[in-house]
Structure formats: C-alpha cells, structure tokens
C-alpha cells in the first residue's frame, strides 16, 4: 500500500529547515549577509515558499528567535522577587550570549532602529507580553508589601533592563551574575519598603 505524502508534515519540515538555516547563516556570515536567497538555498526551499510564509528576512529571524529564546514565557513567581528578577534578567542575557541566537537577536534590534514596523513586531512578539508579566509581578509585590506602596515601577523596569541593552548596543561586555545581583539589590533598596527603627 502506497502512503500519500502528508503536506502538513512537509510544510512543517520546510518551515523548521528555514528557521534553522536563517539562524545558522547569522552565525556564520552575520545578520546582513543572511539574505532570503541564502536562507532559501541553505534550507532547500524556494524563495516563493519563503515569501508565502514570511514577508521579509527579519520576520523569519523574529520567529526563529521567538521559538528558541530562553526568556521565560511566564514570569517566575517563587515568592522571592529578587530571585525572580535574577532569573528573568538571566534569561534576557541568555539570548544575547547564545551563540546561535545572539547574532540574530542583535541584528533584529539593530534593524528595528530603522524599521518602525519591525520594532513594533519585535515588541509584540518578544517583549511586551513578557514585560507586562514582570510589571504584574512587581505590582503584586507592591501590593503585598515586598515593595514600597509608592514604588515607581515604570522607572524600576527601565533601570533593570537598560544596562543589558546599553552594553549590547555599544559592544561593552555583558553583565555577569555578580553585576545582576548588584543591580537588583540597588533597585530593591530604592523601591523596597521603608525600614523603620
């Protein structure tokens, strides 16, 4: 009995091959050289197939990074806010440090500075829902007394994230766990509950 090929399985195989090829080319040649032509050739699919699924190279890489990123999909809530923040920030650093994801994510961030639509897609797909969960966790911490009642969460979120992105954008060494501990301690002291003697 002859089996009929499963088109869904073939499509999924082609899709996965395309995502993998895009990431591989970013590592081997850099973001700029990972063109749709090169991705199609590496993946063994046609450019027409790629453009049927994705409007541009950036969309391929955005999907690839989103699927493989070690940033937690849900913000951890162990009851220890400092530990949860460390896990969160370590996840972001994990993307930049990952030899397979870092070049693609960095390229996407750089291109998004010149492409407002990509910046919006990057926020919607990778960033906004995760940051919203972080804000929800910190709001809960403020409500249960882990943070001061007047803690400015918007500024705290910026302070927590900015050193990582600044260092990456300007090619400074990324922070290590000791730095993250110091950063979190600083923020917790600034917005933690007031100490009374």
UniProtKB/TrEMBL annotation:
Superkingdom: Bacteria
Keywords from the UniProt entry: DNA-binding, Transcription, Transcription regulation
Coiled-coil stretches: none
Domain HTH tetR-type residue range list: 12-72
Xref: PROSITE patterns: HTH_TETR_2
DNA-binding region(s), chain positions: 35-54
Pfam families with a match to the protein in the record: TetR_C_11 (PF16859), TetR_N (PF00440)
InterPro entries for the chain: Homeodomain-like_sf (IPR009057), HTH-type_TetR-like_transc_reg (IPR050109), HTH_TetR (IPR001647), Tet_transcr_reg_TetR-rel_C_sf (IPR036271), TetR_C (IPR011075)
Stored SUPFAM superfamilies: Homeodomain-like, Tetracyclin repressor-like, C-terminal domain
Gene3D superfamilies: Homeodomain-like (1.10.10.60), Tetracycline Repressor, domain 2 (1.10.357.10)
Entry protein name: TetR/AcrR family transcriptional regulator
Organism of this sequence: Nonomuraea typhae
Phylogenetic placement of the source organism: Bacteria, Bacillati, Actinomycetota, Actinomycetes, Streptosporangiales
């Amino acid at each position: 009995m002859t089996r009929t090929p499963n088109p869904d399985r073939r499509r999924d195989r082609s899709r996965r091959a395309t995502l993998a090829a895009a990431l591989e080319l970013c590592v081997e040649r850099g973001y700029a050289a990972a063109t749709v032509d090169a991705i199609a050739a590496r993946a063994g699919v046609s450019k027409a197939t790629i453009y049927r699924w994705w409007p541009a190279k950036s969309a391929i890489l955005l999907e690839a990074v989103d699927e493989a990123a070690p940033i937690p999909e849900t913000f951890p809530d162990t009851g220890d806010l400092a530990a949860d923040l460390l896990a969160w920030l370590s996840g972001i650093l994990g993307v930049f440090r990952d030899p397979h994801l870092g070049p693609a994510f960095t390229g996407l961030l750089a291109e998004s500075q010149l492409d407002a639509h990509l910046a919006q897609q990057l926020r919607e797909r990778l960033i906004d829902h995760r940051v919203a969960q972080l804000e929800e966790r910190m709001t809960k911490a403020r409500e249960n007394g882990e943070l001061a009642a007047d803690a400015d969460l918007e500024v705290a979120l910026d302070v927590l994230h900015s050193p990582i992105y600044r260092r990456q954008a300007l090619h400074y060494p990324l922070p290590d766990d000791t730095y993250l501990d110091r950063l979190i301690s600083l923020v917790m002291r600034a917005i933690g509950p007031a100490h009374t003697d």
